[in-house]
Amino acid sequence: MRVVVDLTRCQGYGQCAFAAPDVFRMARTEALMYELNPDDREREQVLRAVAACPVQAMVIDEMGTLGRPEKADAAGPGMPDRVGRIVIVGASLAGLRAAATLRKEGYQGSLTLIGDESCEPYDRPPLSKQVLNGQVLAAQTMLPRRGELDAGWLLGTPATGLDLAGKQVLLADGRHVGFDRLLIATGVRARPWPNAAEGALDGVFVLRSREDASLLRQRLGDGVNRVLVIGAGFTGSEIASACRDLGLAVTVAERGPAPLVGALGGVIGSIAGEIQREHGVDLRCGVTVTALEGDGDGRLRRAQLSDGSAVDAEVAVVTLGAERNVEWLEGSGLAAGVWGVGCDAGCRAFDVNGIVCDDIFVAGDVARFPHPVYGYQFLTLEHWGNAVTQAQVAAHNMISAPTGRWPHLSLPVFWSAQFGVNIKSVGVPTFADEVVITQGSVADRRFVAAYGYRGRVTAAVTFDQAMWLEFYQDLIEKAAPFPPAFDMVGRPNGVRPVPARIPERVNAIHDATVVVTGHNPDERRATLVTGHE
Ligand SMILES: Cc1cc2nc3c(=O)[nH]c(=O)nc-3n(C[C@H](O)[C@H](O)[C@H](O)COP(=O)(O)OP(=O)(O)OC[C@H]3O[C@@H](n4cnc5c(N)ncnc54)[C@H](O)[C@@H]3O)c2cc1C
Ligand code: SF4
To answer: What stretch or stretches form a coiled coil here (predicted)?
Structure first.
């Protein structure tokens, strides 16, 4: 059977670990690790755990068929449009959730999922956690089946183009797939090491796919002396943590002043740095890796750093962020580029002029959408929870009349498990000028930090205090004053807000060039210039 825990909801109470100790395990206090594909003999235990979970965070295989309803609602002016052809490009978390939502909401027409990976959709978060530390095999990370989905699957089939006017997706094998409505859910890929020859050395890895995880896991078990992790974002830090679990020596090289600084700012990042060092990581901040060197047989041996030092390592994992999978949309007329695919809060894609397309929708890591709570700023998120909720909103809107459409207003929620600590965040921590520890103790590595921007709460981060997240979510949604003025359980004495030390924004659109031509309003048009330096 298959299990996935929605760790954005999980509050780390651990009842599941009591009900099914062979399947669920708490690493230290709150970080939940679990089998995604437990043996059928453990089914009874898992069902008990599902029932015990107070926040209903678990999803398991569902029986029955998620098929077409017998009769379509009448489509017409003002009525939901539940027939026709819907195509989803990107058959992973967002694509699968959207497909299931379409059927659950009564979509009756044809449904096709196009994916370039040849396997069924799987869950990525365990790849840098349970898979690397050997608890779960990469092949056992498939997402639960939510009923037998009545859909056509074109797997192992990359989409290579989009004909917007002709309403067709072009496939690498030369086929064309026609649609009435399209969902773009092509996600991101790992940014490769910038020097291709160095990146091709045996021992240099990235981590995005199941195959990446399987190869890296295999290599980590091959008697490696030292692993070098390049970049200390969430993925890099989790890899370092898994390596320490395996007893391997790890060096982490980070350009910024601390790990996680790009996501959480310098104050909380430096606490994450202390935790890494306490766990034996050789953490080097404020340095970049300038070169990777191999031996005569093309195997990685050493890395040179910008401070003049060198690190001997047989494995280097490049975790330098992600690139959005948008190349197949080049020339389509959509606002798609290095920043993702621009869309409105109802998930409808923008064309290159910034006008919404009624029939093209976007969801998941590839989407760039405005969030009212953050000054309508456009966000791109690589968060599991966002992929799920945005896919559900997009699917709903695809089959709803304009008046029945929903805005995608969920606050971003993220979790990470590293060095036995469950780190969670709600809101946008980088949309802040100050941060304050509101509850718990930094020394105990169990605390809540609230972030504020110009006198209102904009985000919160918890270290092993997940149960408070909902409370802070409420404060953010109410634009509650910052610093929070009322007494809270476990409030430490004498702490004051301090500058959050958010790094200067790296602007995702710095290499996008748009040329505007024409003089009269009826002839003014934007054109994307690609490959511009
Ligand atoms: C190692 C790792 C650990 C993570 N840990 C966490 C975590 O702890 N917490 C958290 O909140 N999030 C985590 N995430 C992020 C989370 O997994 C993503 O946010 C989520 O997978 C996004 O889903 P998606 O469907 O939008 O994109 P993806 O999962 O990237 O899926 C996109 C799919 O589209 C396919 N595709 C791309 N181009 C084409 C094309 N031209 N034609 C057809 N198919 C195409 C891709 O191959 C892929 O299968 C982690 C991610 C990784 C990689
Ligand atoms: S909240 Fe649910 S999934 Fe999370 S630890 Fe508790 S019982 Fe397990």
So the answer is: none
Tokens of 64: 């029955």
Contact 326, 336 (CB under 8 A): yes
One domain for residues 88 and 172: yes
For ligand 1, whether the C-beta of 128 sits within 6 Å is yes
416 phi/psi in degrees, rounded to 5:
-150, 145
- Position 109 in a domain: yes
The CATH number for 27's domain is 3.30.70.20
18-43 pLDDT per residue, tens: 999 999 998 778 889 999 999 988 99
Which of 34, 60, 86 finishes a domain? 60
Specify the CATH number for the domain of residue 237: 3.50.50.60
Q: How high is the pLDDT of residue 81?
A: 75
Residue 425 beta carbon below 6 angstroms from any ligand 1 atom: no
Distances (CA, A) of 268 to 131, 340, 429: 27, 28, 10
- Residues 76-123 have pLDDT tens digits of 544 457 889 999 999 999 999 999 999 999 999 999 999 999 999 999
Q: Examine the domain organization and report whether 146 and 183 are in the same domain.
A: yes
Per-residue pLDDT at 533 exceeds 80: no
pLDDT in tens, 425-479: 999 999 999 999 999 999 999 999 999 999 999 999 999 999 999 999 999 999 9
Looking at residue 525, what is its pLDDT? 83
Percentage of residues in the chain with pLDDT exceeding 70? Answer: 94
Which run of H or of E encompasses 18? helix 15-19
Dist. CA 189 → ligand 1 center (Å): 8
Could you say which of 343, 378, 411 is where a domain stops?
A: 411
Q: Reply yes or no on whether the pLDDT at 50 is more than 80.
A: yes
237 and 92 inside one domain: no
492 shares a domain with 462: yes
Q: Which domain holds residue 37?
A: 1-60
7 lines ligand 2 (CB under 6 A): no
Q: How far is residue 386's CA from residue 31's CA, in Å, rounded to a whole number?
A: 20
Report the C-alpha gap between 118 and 387 in whole angstroms: 21
343 with 285, same domain: the answer is no
Which residue of 113, 116, 469 sits with most ligand 1 atoms within 8 Å of its CB, as the best mutation to test the pocket? 116
> Which pLDDT band holds residue 507 (cuts at 50, 70, 90)?
very low
Ligand closest in space to the Cα of 91 = 1
3-state secondary structure 403-436: HHCCCCCCCCEEEEEECCEEEEEEECCCCCCEEE
State which ligand 2 atom lies nearest to the alpha carbon of 30: 5
Band of residue 488 on the pLDDT scale cut at 50, 70, 90: confident
Residues 315 and 209 in one domain: yes
